[in-house]
Amino acid sequence: MNVLWLQSSGCGGCTMSLLCAEGPILFDRLADAGINLLWHPSLSLETGAEARALLARVEAGEIALDVLCVEGAIARGPRGTGRFQMLGGTGRSMLDWVRSLAAKARHVVAVGTCAAFGGVTSAGENPSDACGLQYEGAHSGGIFPASFRAAGGLPVINVAGCPTHPDWVSETLMLLAEDRLGAQDLDALARPLFYTRHLVHHGCPKNEFYEYKASAVKLSDIGCMMENLGCIGTQAMGDCNIRPWNGSGSCTRGNYPCINCTAPEFEEPRHSFTETPKIAGIPVGLPTDMPKAWFMALASLSKAATPERLARNAVADRVDVPPSLRGKTAGAAQTKGRK
Ligand code: SF4
Ligand code: SF4
Asked: Model's pTM, two decimal places?
């Protein structure tokens, strides 16, 4: 399966993330799946005239294009010309190239939230008029209309994430190589369900704190970050805590709140990323699939029942009170000794 990768308006972080694939490493993973990376601007040897010649052959249909991967948003400015971002040496805008090559591709994959929805590149005043391939924020229709379908019958496949997890990209490509990714395998935002059928909250090491509403008050604390520090892992789609990054990491495992980077418009939450907006002291962004009244009732109950261990550990930067062994006091003695 031939894959061509273009880097558009973004930071290149999704490629950096992709290179963190391990077990096996990226290149073995692709080779084992029969995936031929025709060209990638950062990873391929071909540059300049060689790269341009290859693009021309793909565009002319001389080389079959199975998957066009686009990383980064597409700059549409000024005035819809796309000339704010040119593909070096070709005299043509990235907008023009992506449109032309997408028409040749069996599948089009948006790698990362910028390519999918506009992401950070489209934040603020967005002077470059950047948008996603088939979405502008949460609204369908980017440089391609909502009705766009690639030759293989699918819309742009949005492997969203900022950056996206290396496995999300490689698994998507492997499924496409085996012809095992259909419309039924995408969610309502055209993200592959294999990673968006989970919430970031699933598998978070802070779940025990969450259950008792034992909350962190500053970023180094090990308690749950939902109440005070802006974590929206209970609403964010992603298997980040089930399929850790680089073998063991995730945002919440690193004591940073989940900011829902797999979703459109995460980049402008209208408040600090590390602050939970509240009305009358109650967080506004409660889990979406639970009645608010029930949540409030259960939260106050569990807060009243918070074990001393969790209440104290939640506001410490490491385990202060270890779990006790029934009938033994060694843990408490050790803790006192450490202090
Ligand atoms: S920190 Fe976030 S993801 Fe982790 S348990 Fe709390 S709400 Fe869930
Ligand atoms: S934990 Fe949240 S912010 Fe972090 S990568 Fe996953 S979805 Fe994005």
From this structure: 0.93
225 lines ligand 2 (CB under 6 A): no
Of 282 and 245, the one with more pLDDT: 245
Contact call for residues 114 and 262 (beta carbons, < 8 A): no
Q: Identify the residues whose C-beta falls under 6 Å from ligand 1.
A: 200-201, 204, 206-207, 210, 224-226, 231, 233-234, 252, 258
- Phi, psi at 49, each rounded to 5°: -60, -40
The structure tokens 């962190």 sit at 216
pLDDT in tens, 153-206: 999 999 999 999 999 999 999 999 999 999 999 999 999 999 999 999 999 999
Do residues 73 and 264 lie in contact, with contact meaning Cβ atoms separated by under 8 Å? no
**Per-residue pLDDT tens over the stretch 316-332:** 999 999 998 876 765 55
pLDDT tens sequence across 266-309: 999 989 999 999 888 888 877 777 788 888 888 889 989 999 99
CA nearest ligand 2 atom 6, residue: 240
For the segment 213-221, the average pLDDT, to the nearest whole number, is 96
